Amino acid sequence: MSQEITEQEVALAQQAWGEGIVKIGKVFTDGGDFSAAAEEHLDTLYAFEQGPVLFKPTKAAAEQFRLTRESALSYFVGGNAKYAEDHGFAINPWTNVRFENVTVFIRGDYAVAMGNYYFTQVDGQEVKVEYSFGYLKGADGRLKINLHHSSLPFAG
Fold first, then answer.
1. H or E segment to which residue 18 belongs
2. 42: closest CA among 11, 62, 17, 67?
3. pTM higher than 0.90
4. In 3D, which of 5, 6, 21, 35 has the Cα closest to residue 98?
5. Is there a contact between 52 and 147 (Cβ–Cβ < 8 Å)?
6. Is residue 156 part of a domain?
7. What CATH number is given to the structural domain containing 87?
8. CA angle at 96 for the pair 51 and 133, rounded to the nearest 5°
9. Which of 20, 71, 115, 120 would staple 101 via disulfide (CB 3.0–4.6 Å)?
10. In 3D, which of 135, 147, 120, 141 has the Cα closest to residue 56?
């Protein structure tokens, strides 16, 4: 059996996720290969090689559930005709991502975190988004995401 996940590992995985999103946007702004940066982000932080990844991104309506690596990549960088609504969430660009967990539930080698994360725009304004992420251990011993659900707060 895999070693039990710790809250510290979840915090480090969240930090790596945020840094990866910022990196993709910076590579885009600098004129680099932002698609390669996004692929690295997916391959490092998501568990597509271990089974289904339940991915429900924030700004997706026509194809609201993304169950393949290809569809997740499209959400982050756009440019895929199969997902015409995608304009590249990660190439916005963002300057920082900050997580605030409401709770982290850990049961052995699986963890789920839920709360708000805040994306800082170039002008310094923060965008608040709600999330739930599920984590399991990858073959490399690092946490990998197999559940990613995010949405904008209800504005009724």
1. helix 7-29
2. 17
3. yes
4. 21
5. no
6. no
7. 3.10.450.50
8. 25
9. 115
10. 147
